[in-house]
Amino acid sequence: MRIVFATGNKDKMREIREILGGLDAEILSMKEAGVFEDVVEDGTTFAENAAIKASAIYKLLEEKDPDMAGQTVVLADDSGLEVDYLGGEPGIYSARYLGKDTPYSEKNRIIIERLAGAEGEERSARFVCAIAACLPGGKMLSTIGKMEGRIGFEIAGENGFGYDPIFFLPEYGKTSAEISPEEKNAISHRGKALREMAGLLEEAFKGGNI
Question: What domain range is 116 assigned to?
Fold first, then answer.
């Protein structure tokens, strides 16, 4: 079996290989599998977008190598930040928020500005990650993981990426960009969704459903 994850992000692939490494399967990025097309994710939820991407990449791989289709599982994720004070923004538009090419340093600064005057629980937020798996034959599996926190009052930390420098974790007294990668993987939205997906895939492998 091979698992193709629909991403070219090296940091994400490292985390994926660590968590899914116990499965009896080769784990490849989309580009390592020879697929370079962009998929239009036009769903209305994280779960819908993940499923759209997983299904589209599976079909592309099937067209590219029909003989391998029966031995391939395609995983895709969609994730983002939900800020309650902003009505759930940026949500599924997290990557495109304020413009796709706008640097995250600017996005983070503006989010902090928009929460001026908000205190305590008013600053509640969460990272959400939905993961979809397209199995041979088109069957879909899905999981969702969340990491709860608050929007900090300042940008802090260099370990993470994206919105990590403004995502404050009260239990650590730090942002998710200030804790170690190991600590983050243990509690992160993606880590939770990936570990649950690893369990579902292991059951499917053992049960002969793939």
Answer: 2-206
**CATH number, domain at 75?**
3.90.950.10
If residue 147 lies in a helix (H) or strand (E), which one and from where to where? Answer: strand 140-151
pLDDT, average across residues 183-206? 92
> Into how many domains does the chain fold?
1
d(CA 140, CA 123): 35
Which residues carry out catalysis? Answer: 78
Q: Where are the beta strands (DSSP E) in 36-113?
A: 72-83
* Sheet strands side by side (includes 140-151): 26-29, 2-5, 72-83, 124-134, 140-151, 167-169, 174-175
Report how many helices (DSSP H) and strands (DSSP E) the chain contains, helices first.
6, 7
Answer for the pair 46, 78: CB distance below 8 angstroms, yes or no. Answer: yes
- The pTM of the full predicted model, rounded to 2 decimals, is 0.91
